[in-house]
Amino acid sequence: MAIGDKIRKIRTKRGITQKELGLSIGFSERTADVRIAQYESGKKIKFHLIGLDHLLEEWYEKKKALESGKISQEEYYEWKMNWPKNMDNH
Known about the structure:
The protein is mainly α and 90 residues long. It has helices at residues 3-14, 18-24, 32-41, 50-68, 73-82. It contains five helices and no strands. Helix 1 crosses helix 3. It is elongated, with a radius of gyration of 13 Å.
């Protein structure tokens, strides 16, 4: 699965728009949705989005913690329900 597909999959599972995701990683109000659309479509493949990279890494780490028993299903669910709002803590 290409990175753009992964971005779209996570974003749609969370029920957030391209603009909301773009804003959460620091893009301007004016370009947030366009920039995310470019990454999802593969038109922009240079992966210099430190903020987005961090978001994807956080999902991976939480899933790993759940699978290893470091966090409970309830803790994982609570985290998912508050993401990306809980990104303000980083």
